[in-house]
Task: structure prediction
Amino acid sequence: MKKQRALFLDRDGIINIDHGYVSKIEDFSFSEKIFELLHLFKEEGYLLFVVTNQSGIGRNYYTQDDFETLTKWMIKTFSEKNIIIEKVTYCPHSPKDNCLCRKPATGMIDTILEEYDIDLSASWLIGDKQSDIDLAQNSHIKHSIAIGINNIKNSEYHFNSIDTCYNYLKAHKEIIQPKVN
Ligand SMILES: [Mg+2]
Ligand SMILES: [Zn+2]
Result:
């Protein structure tokens, strides 16, 4: 079977506005144009994954149950808009745990690759921190997009917001279309 292309998404600051340790449905606000952006990738056949550091669990700001309740609601909200999230992977540890899954370590991507046959050379990652872009590099995800006004190194593209990212990719769809050999 042909390998599939994937879009790996950070959560806080990408899917939703990062208010800091968001753990409740009422505090979760979707980023402007995130649904439209994911539709663009969906139309091109990408599988969608969420890859998120959730050290708020390890720091005891909220529980794994809180996270899972919010995640179920998020997935349901996406599916009501015809957006299927294949899998949400998360690191529940705090930085001092020195785990193998906290970004930019590659554990969460490794887990996804055990289950799915992904062509990393045709896959994308979107994140708002240096650790996201470093994860793309460490995992050999070829294409990366940094979002936000912070200085981030080594990303292939950088936009101020999901909104501007969407407008650019909508106007330049060939960027995310498969190369015809
Ligand atoms: Mg983030
Ligand atoms: Zn971890």
In short: The two ends are 18 Å apart (CA to CA). Residues 64-80 form the longest helix (17 residues).
